[in-house]
Design brief:
mainly alpha, single chain, 2 strands, two-stranded antiparallel ribbon, 260 residues, elongated
Length: 260
């Protein structure tokens, strides 16, 4: 399809687009059928990486296929105990796409990002794309989402907060985010005042709880930069504890206050 567009395919564009969608749907069906077979997945991954990269790096001609690219990445970053070097070459382009032209896809793109964070935290924290640390790209994406998601359901903001919680939790063992923990917490407490729903506020609480578990003294020191805001925040946290019914959230509460 990209070839037809580049050559000014005209009336052939619709047919080319239809064929491309059919091919991508077929690949998706194959991946779904063999996802439990690591050997087969490894063979398919080699052939799919160039296709995924083409979609991510061609916003003008291939944007309508980004759903398929993200779905393929979710499959390939999930199977196995680690993520292959080939799939790591797609992490930067995925973040670039999310920041520059796929801002509304953070909910879908969240899945492979969570896989990258949980399976290769040090690699992610040390990685760069176009000379920029990937973790800085991720934080810009989250900041933009917090600022621009004005929907009543706040679905994108919830996804952004979930990614932050995963980042902090995954980085605890290597203590790799000490220099950015303060800005993360400031963005979370800043968003808290404008959160529309109780569920959104709980997702933001989870970020702070994971930060307390990560490094309680560092977290409290960062929050103490604005004492009135910190006091208001912790009052809200204490008042919301009874609403935090998820097992994951309750475990975070225990770990956070034990750390304190």
């Amino acid at each position: 399809y990209a070839g037809e567009k580049a050559q000014g395919g005209g009336d052939d564009d619709d047919e080319a687009e239809f064929n491309a969608c059919q091919c991508l749907d077929t690949i998706s069906s194959v991946l779904d059928a063999v996802q439990e077979d690591a050997a087969v997945m490894a063979q398919l991954e080699v052939h799919c990486i160039p296709l995924i990269l083409t979609i991510l790096e061609n916003a003008d001609n291939a944007f309508e296929y980004i759903d398929s690219a993200v779905q393929f990445m979710a499959y390939f970053t999930y199977y196995g105990d680690s993520i292959t070097a080939g799939m790591w070459t797609l992490c930067g382009p995925l973040l670039f796409a999310l920041e520059h032209y796929a801002q509304d896809y953070i909910g879908e793109i969240m899945v492979p990002i969570l896989n990258y964070l949980t399976k290769g935290t040090p690699i992610f924290l040390q990685g760069t794309h176009k000379g920029v640390p990937m973790v800085h790209c991720l934080l810009r994406i989250i900041a933009n989402t917090f600022e621009n998601d004005s929907s009543q359901m706040e679905i994108d903001c919830k996804a952004a907060a979930t990614i932050l919680t995963c980042l902090i939790t995954s980085a605890r063992e290597c203590q790799g985010i000490n220099d950015i923990l303060g800005p993360i917490l400031m963005s979370v407490t800043g968003k808290f005042s404008s959160a529309k729903s109780g569920t959104m506020r709980i997702r933001l609480h989870e970020v702070v709880l994971s930060a307390l578990h990560y490094d309680a003294p560092l977290t409290i020191a960062a929050l103490s930069a604005d004492v009135p805001t910190m006091n208001l925040y912790f009052a809200a946290l204490m008042g919301a504890l009874k609403e935090m019914e998820r097992d994951f959230t309750q475990r975070l509460i225990v770990l956070a206050f034990t750390a304190v």
